Amino acid sequence: IGKHRLKQELRQKGVESALIEQSLGQMDEDEMMRLATEQAEKLLRRLRGKDERDLQRKALQALYRRGYGLDTAKAALRHALDGDLDESLSYDE
């Protein structure tokens, strides 16, 4: 899961905010992007056969729900699609 969701789950378990911020600050951004890209690739395989724009929108929404920030989700999806991402997509569409 992404940083945002991890942060939320740790708060729900009663972990102090300062400890959460310190721990998440130590996470490797490159590793987080690699994990998000792997997740995007799995989502794209599972959603294959749908309209391209619909496929991208659904994959972006799924990554966002898994706790990846919108910028990270878009970048991961772009990598998974080899740069062929419709830039007009947003989470709210």
Helix fraction by DSSP (H/I, runs of at least 4): 55-70%
Beta-strand content: under 5%
Give the SSE string. Answer: HHHHH
Class by alpha and beta content = mainly alpha
Q: What is Rg?
A: 14 Å
The total strand number stands at 0
3D shape: elongated
Q: If helices are DSSP runs of H or I spanning 4 or more residues, what is the number of helices?
A: 5
Largest sheet: none
* Rounded average pLDDT: 84
How widely separated are the two ends?
22 Å
Poorly predicted regions are: none
Describe the structure.
The chain is mainly alpha-helical and 93 residues long. It is 68% helix and 0% strand.
Quick structural summary:
The protein has 93 residues and is an all-alpha fold. The chain contains five helices and no strands.
Q: What labels would you give this structure?
A:
93 residues, mainly alpha
Helix and strand topology:
Layout: H1 3-12, H2 17-25, H3 29-47, H4 52-65, H5 70-80
